[in-house]
Amino acid sequence: MxxxxxxxxxSLDDRDALRAVRLAGGEPxxxxxxxxxxxxxxxxxxxxxxxxxxYLRCGAIAAHSPIMREVIDAANKGLPVLGICNGFQVLVExxxxxxxxxxxxxxxxxxxxxxxxxxNVDTAWTNTYELGQEITIPLKNGEGxxxxxxxxxxxxxxxxxxxxxxxxxxxxxxLNDIAGLRNARGNVVGLMxxxxxxxxxxxxxxxxxxxxxxxxxxxxxxxxxxxxxxK
Length: 231
Known about the structure:
Blueprint: E1 2-7, H1 14-24, E2 27-32, E3 43-46, H2 66-76, E4 81-84, H3 86-93, E5 100-102, E6 110-118, E7 134-141, E8 145-147, H4 150-158, E9 162-166, E10 178-182, E11 188-191, H5 217-225
Parallel strand pairs: 1-2, 1-3, 3-4, 4-11
Antiparallel strand pairs: 5-8, 6-7, 6-9, 9-10, 10-11
């Protein structure tokens, strides 16, 4: 299965995402933001970083890059799309996911291993997790606070579209401890933590600080099996 990873000016984690796809058993395909060709990939990842230097709003400019026209069209037709950190912000700005992401409530950049609970396994990217499974994924962001109006928040909760929720500590003030979302179809998922940094034991940062494990690998394995969308 071919999984494309889009590079924007300012992307930082595109190489990590490509490596995660390869470790999961897929074929990684590099894509460029200024192109219109998705090269026939079977799934897409919008990686983390600081696309266009986070000018205007995080992800706002990238959401209007040429390749996003194809991404939006493909996502609306059912192609699996994953947005990680800045990629989540891009998906929100492109209106593929609801809500918004604002500056952390404590006003500073945060970097930590973050415990999450898997709230939904009926997606292309989470179907190999167990419902309610607790996982640990690295988190690094300055504008990761999830917001939505009351009506949208009630709908997200009522329709079961919350996909990941922060546990133990809310690191950025996200409403309802929301760390990640899915769309109604289940092919589009966005989350602030970085699963691509938790795909291989022994390759995390200093063991006395962040201790990234392999809990993120299942996200990339899930899209290769794609059991949800093949039903």
